[in-house]
Amino acid sequence: MTIQESVKWLASHDNYLLLTHLNPDGDTVMSAAALCRALRRKNKKACLYRNPQITAKQLPFVEKLFAPEDFEVQNVVAVDLATEKLFPEGFDGAVDFCIDHHPSNSHYAKNEIIEPECSSCGEIILKLIKSWTGKLTKNEATLLYIALTTDTGAFQYANVNAESYRAAAALMDAGAEHSKVMMHFFRKTSLSRLKLEGMIYSSLHYYRDGKIVVALVTQKMMKEAGANEDDCDDLAGLSGRAENARINVTIRELKDGSCKVSVRSAPGVSSEKVCEVLGGGGHELAAGCTIQDSPEKAEKILVDVIETVCGDSL
Question: Which of 119, 233, 269, 279 could form a disulfide with 159 if both were Cys (CB 3.0 to 4.6 A apart)?
Fold first, then answer.
């Protein structure tokens, strides 16, 4: 669907439950929150699904938008969910409309708008709100600015393009609180996060003369650092700071014994192809998957897949 067709669909329905994805990042949470507020401005009933994994850092921006137990859902909208495997804990229903920017989207929804050229899902929500309402509120602009900056690493990642900066300018013109967002999400961090980062940096594993870099984040490390889920935002980018890295992998052991895998790569090396082999997906330069094994075994699996899929491009 186009932006105009999507607006028409949203305008013709009501009672929306907005989904954010498993292990939610700033893009899915804040994009859904901004859309929720815009729907309410248009006199629609809209609430966020109470994703139990939303972090303490994200919670103040969305806690007033969660659906009450008696909310009567008529339409489910997934925001930034590429596949059914990313449905949040406790949700197993059907999705009526999907808003996404992942080229690997599995087309699970009855209706969809997918714009892979966007560096964040927030950019699509920005276009939808402006097309429908003519302008954004200051609150909506701030939410979408969080979405944009977290998915681009404050404009450091390779997914950034000229439209990313145009979106940022439009959001700041609408009143987005740049300084507040930067301080809350990028400038300040907990002591436990700092300790965890030190442990990660000191234990990086290098392959192919440093072109492949692997970071392991085990439950033992989390415990020793005193870290929790709120300390795990954007860990995926740390190992990519090594100067020779062409592809970097972060393997985070979860409490259930599985491993959440994040892959980041330089242009010409496909993170997406690596993760697709293992049942995941994402973008060319940033993708993810889950491996039901120990961090050490997951590392061996991933290095073997990278050598097979990307060996010639390293």
Answer: 119
How many angstroms separate the CA atoms of 168 and 271, rounded? 26
Whether residue 93 is found in the same domain as residue 216 = no
Task: Look at the block and give the residue holding tokens 């939610």.
Answer: 24
CATH number at residue 291: 3.10.310.30
Q: Are residues 12 and 152 in the same domain?
A: yes
Q: How far is CA 89 from CA 50, 92, 123, 243, in A?
A: 9, 8, 26, 37
Interval 261-314: pLDDT, tens: 999 999 999 999 999 999 998 889 999 999 999 999 999 999 999 999 998 898
Domain that holds residue 174: 3-186
Q: Is the same domain home to 257 and 111?
A: no
Tell whether pTM > 0.70. yes
Count of H-run helices and E-run strands, the chain: 11, 11
pLDDT in tens, 176-198: 999 999 999 988 889 999 999 99
